[in-house]
Amino acid sequence: MAGRASAQAALETRRSVVKAAADLASVEGLDSVTIGRLAEIVQMSKSGVIGQFRTKETLQLETVGLVFSDFRTRVWETVKRFPRGLPRLLAACDAWTEYAADPGYPGGCLMTQVTYDYDGREGAVHERLLEGRNQWRETLRADLTAAVETGDLPEDTDIESVVFGLESLASFITPARLLHGDTRAADHAYQGMRRIIGVPEEVR
Fold first, then answer.
1. Which of 124, 128, 11 is closest to 64 using CA atoms?
2. CA distance 197 to 171
3. How far apart are CA 11 and CA 26, in angstroms?
4. What are residue 83's phi and psi, to 5 degrees?
5. pTM listed for this prediction
6. Which residue, among 100, 99, 117, 118, has the nearest Cα to 178 in the 3D structure?
7. CA-CA distance, 39 to 154, in Å (whole number)?
8. pLDDT per residue over 32-67, tens digit each?
């Protein structure tokens, strides 16, 4: 029992460190996440943090993993019950914009922040970010394709342009809120998504 309790305590400590890393990265960028900074924030010794992760890159990768896990929980897991195609796509846009407006990090949507930081770099963080974002893009493409096949969207729908437009609108929610003070940024993005998809606007 003691061993199990010790392992659980270590896991909880690791999670608290990763959450602190995500909070810090959302404000100052992922490069700001260092062993020393986190040791101060979570009130641990540097050796204690190093013992959890060994390298800064491992810590960064787990931080990115946390962001994708949060996104899946709050967006995909809430909409996968909807019928594939247009119903699920619209539900995803609704959940996506709500998430981007309040992702649970002080600096806004960390997925957007990390994308801007690492889109032009090489390395493990870039590859992990690319993998996660590609999975989401494939999800969007699949529902758009299904919507075309069922006749809910026109046959000549440019699926790649729609995906690009949806991502562009979602990614601007954080700067619209935090830089421009737009309290309705998520609503504007959601209505814009519906226009890009080609369905009437909806009051929410």
1. 128
2. 17
3. 23
4. -60, 140
5. 0.86
6. 100
7. 54
8. 888 788 888 888 777 777 777 778 888 889 899 999
